[in-house]
Amino acid sequence: MKLGKKIKTLRIARGYTQEELADRCDLSRSFISQLENDQVSPSIDTLERILRVLGSDLKTFFSTDKRQEKIVFKASERVPMYLDEYGIKGYILMDNIEDKSIDPKLIELAPGAETEEEDPHEGDEFGYVISGKLELILDGKVYKVNQGDCFYYCSDRKHKIRNPYEKSVKFLWIDIE
What we know:
Layout: H1 3-14, H2 18-25, H3 29-36, H4 44-53, H5 58-62, E1 79-80, E2 88-92, E3 102-109, E4 124-131, E5 133-138, E6 141-146, E7 150-154, E8 159-162, E9 169-176
Antiparallel strand pairs: 1-2, 2-3, 3-9, 4-7, 4-9, 5-6, 5-8
């Protein structure tokens, strides 16, 4: 693949117009157009600047590695997270994946069990209740979440999940960076 075509592919994947890319790189739109059509060659500094804006770098851009991406994650590959003694069973659903922006977990809380309260941190969190019901506590405010419901919140406040009910609850919990 030619340099210009690779840059154009990255630009389109980021949703930038030629004008937007040019503005972000302090270059002219005509230069970006010529570059994408392989009519000009950028200096290394200019290429690094363009790639930084496009979320890449020289090593990745010129890599010929065809990394094998994992698509299916088998139930047998799940990594246990919690001990049964606390009434919490958890499994990391996708392990050994670099640069993932989500971290999905399958959690089961026994009656009366609860997660530790987490301090505010970066990111967002999403959950979907597969069976049972639970309580989501955000900065002390309680939200009741039933089977089939989902929840989503910014992780910038204290939070925890508990099961004050008589039946176990199973839910999908996704940390989003």
